[in-house]
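Q: For a teaching session next week I want to show students how multiple molecules come together into a single three-dimensional assembly. I've collected the sequence lines for a complex. Could you give me the predicted structure tokens for the whole thing so I can convert them for display?
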Amino acid sequence: MYSNKVVDFGTPTKRSDNTVTVHIDGKPVCVPEGTSVMRAAVEAGVQVPKLCATDSLESFGSCRLCLVEIDGRRGTPASCTTPCDDGMQVTTQSNKLANLRRGVMELYISDHPLDCLTCPANGNCELQDMAGAVGLRDVRYGYEGENHLVQEKDESNPYFTFDPTKCIVCSRCVRACEETQGTFALTVEGRGFESKIAAGPTNFFDSECVSCGACVQACPTSTLMEKSIVDAGQPDHAVTTTCAYCGVGCSFRAEMQGSEVVRMVPHKDGKANHGHSCVKGRFAWGYATHPDRVKKPMIRKKITDPWREVTWEEAFEYAASEIKRIQAKYGQASTGGITSSRCTNEETFLLQKLVRAGFGNNNVDTCARVCHSPTGYGLKTTLGESAGTQDFDSVDFTDCVIVLGANPTDGHPVFASRMKKRLREGAGLIVIDPRKIDLVRMPHVEADFHLQLRPGANVAVMNALAHVVVTEGLESKDYIAQRCDLDDYTKWRAFISEERNSPEALEEHTGVPADQIRGAARLFAKAPNGAIYYGLGVTEHSQGSTGVMTIANLAMLTGNIGRPGVGVNPLRGQNNVQGACDMGSFPHELPGYRHVSDPAVRELFGKEWGVKIQPEPGLRIPNMFDAAVDGSFKALYVQGEDIAQSDPDTQHVQKALESLECLIVQDIFLNETAKYAHVIFPGSSFLEKDGTFTNAERRISMVRKVMPPLAGLADWEVTVRFAEALGYRMDYKHPSEIMDEIARLTPTFSGVSYDKLNKLGSVQWPCNDAAPEGTPYMHEQEFTRGKGKFVLTEFQATPERTTRKFPLILTTGRTLSQYNVGAQTRRTQNQLWHDEDMIELHPHDAENRGIEHGDMVSMQSRKGDTTMRCVITERMQLGVVYSTFHHPESGANVVTTENSDWATNCPEYKVTAVQVRKVTSNRSDWQQRFDAFAQQQDSLARQGAEDPEQPAK
Amino acid sequence: MDANKLVTMANQIASFFATDPDRTAAVAGTANHIQKFWEPRMRKTLLAAFDDGGDHGMHELVVAALTEHRAGLEPVA
Ligand code: SF4
Ligand code: SF4
Ligand code: SF4
Ligand code: FES
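A: Of course. Below is the structure for the complete assembly, covering every listed component.
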């Protein structure tokens, strides 16, 4: 439910260049034009009683509790629906108003159970507060009349309850679902006394509800109530922190009882989410205290040995001695490290520092390799900076949106809600996706164009769009002349104008009717502000980097970079993808995207770290696997990443991991990779450490420790202690000192410090002398690289082709309730929504194969095969199948190939030729081997835990 | 490292730069990309394959890059 600990202004803030001054009980206050009297009153320090209003929603004016008197006006207008006029004199308290308000409250309370003392909302209930505020002392109507006090509770949602007996039908929930979330799952049924709130025909769980929690947060009573609060009671304090799931980077208040989280509430002042959340950040945090958490360091000599729990000292000593032994035997370059976008900036910075300074090589990479590395390459090449150009608020000013290879309502739900709001206000929408994603058509949102292309044809479609813009003379000539390199442009213009880049000529590759592409190109080019949002459907292709550059080309061509409402916007998968890349975790770049071959940069870091930095790029993740199989790469330190599950061509990855002599895994769970490990350093969850995450809009936000690390050390401390054991000293007492070092060494971060973050809440880099409070949108006057560079982006079909044996194309993606490899969300009740990965198949493809909805089917590619249950849906186009990859045993990556982006080696997850067949056995050969290996490893882990005395063999 | 796989990767890079009508730029682009992003043992393996005289199906821009930009592609000692 609602939290009465946070100031509520009653109605949303208004954007206006004009201000008006009103007097509230004699006190003058100056507010933007359009502001409600209620909001002005709160700004003047006066809280007018209210029930149906809250500042996340437009006012509604139904409860009549917020009445005021205004000089020169008749009656008692509702302050929430009355806009301020200049010079207005408002009275908020008088006998008349008090009587009216008491009358209203009396009616509400006469139909409300009086079990305040045992109600979970006790102490945090707006209805209770209002009864107090209006001085309600008795209820003249009695409680015996007709009422709603005997209705059943709906407990179907795993995270919150709906108790209709407590409902005052203020419709805040209904409006939250519409305005804040954009799902329209709730309605008010009936009229007058009969009216009640309904979630679909049956209950919340079976309705359209996506469990975002917006209605719960808006509810002023305990009608919609978090089950965690029902169980634990009200919090005693709150700490502001950042969600550790997706790249939206929502700010949350972790509401605590001592060191136990009782509720996560989206933070109203959070600049990425403005008080909204999705089911993951809001509710799926129980994994942090799940019994599966690893709490003790463990070691073993061989992966067939039982694990042995040891002290931290012993684990560090053992790991360090192994690294030294291996380096002595196989050379310095035989070791490396992988960090994760789930780690904080500080942790990632330390890991790459450990590898470069402690291991003495550049073999460090991050999981961004397998998601957004093409964004880094493509945007650096064209615009000069490896980052998205806008803040999320920018979408409020957009007139036409392209969503390309992204599924924001599942992958980036809170941003999707913002975007849907803008779309409901009338912005144009072009969806470019092989699947009919929800955005194509949902309540009050419909795409103007859905370019349903063949997987792998992004570059062709984007080239065709640019071709139409150029050949129809729709390009922004002045912008290009002023902002872009004209030699490159002339060359590119000649290339893109060629007939082979026309939508007609490319139709056989794209599968999209040419007139649709022409229509979409015109819509986008003619919009005053056009913005492109894209995701892994662009990057995870053999032409991933080329795809990113087609986006930059189109944005520059239409003059859509450098102001609000436009831009190139990569939607980052995990919470800290942007940060991980910024922190120098790519093998060729030191922090701030500076190439290791630059002697001045090496000198700068070398001096600070007291070492000599190697001048050659190191191995990227897929190269590490190849080198391991080849025998020249022998030791790997993996922090927070489950490469055995998330990387493509699983069997090759497994072979690589088996070839290592020392695999060190630092994670909160014994994940799939840990099954191949020799050392386990227990990780700490985002609730157990201090640090920062950088979201998709370059926003750096604080992660704050609210409970002690379960295993005793925060992740950054583990790296520091491991480095020490290796003989490389790192002197930090707190992560803020790591950020200070980052700021010293990185020009785009030079103005960042924990003090500033505490003061401003968050900042978007570049943050330096030129932009001390950060940069909401980039490339305002000129591009970071100077002139924007148009790059020739020839379409080249992926080598992965369909054949008679493998006639279907598999593409992969994710679902709202699960997150990535699922290590966290599978350990929460989010499982109720998605407890297995499934293959989606077009009805004709299913019929041809005699497959029915829900059948077990095998999916086979050139690389391997697996079995999953099948869903038949018209979302899919003919010949294309789709699956998620959240569950290790489904082995979606057993079938994906080793193909990768030409520039960055980012794997081509999105295109695999497969065959799908109905099967009788539930497990493929690979899955049977997976089961046996998992069983063996589980028993080795159990033996170790049961027998701590057992010596390492 | 698997030379065939590296040749495939190098060919992919070359196909990207091959669109450039300026051949010198295309060769330099290919060489520069390999130099900037490939770890020394990958470059060594590719150069060794190039030197062994066998037919590895190298894109002609890769051949040109390895010939004309050899010094830059040899790992720094
Ligand atoms: S459920 Fe809560 S928010 Fe919705 S109408 Fe009832 S009291 Fe208001
Ligand atoms: S939880 Fe979200 S989606 Fe579900 S009913 Fe409430 S506001 Fe709507
Ligand atoms: S949208 Fe992303 S960052 Fe926000 S709550 Fe959901 S998972 Fe967390
Ligand atoms: S708060 Fe204004 S009418 Fe309800």
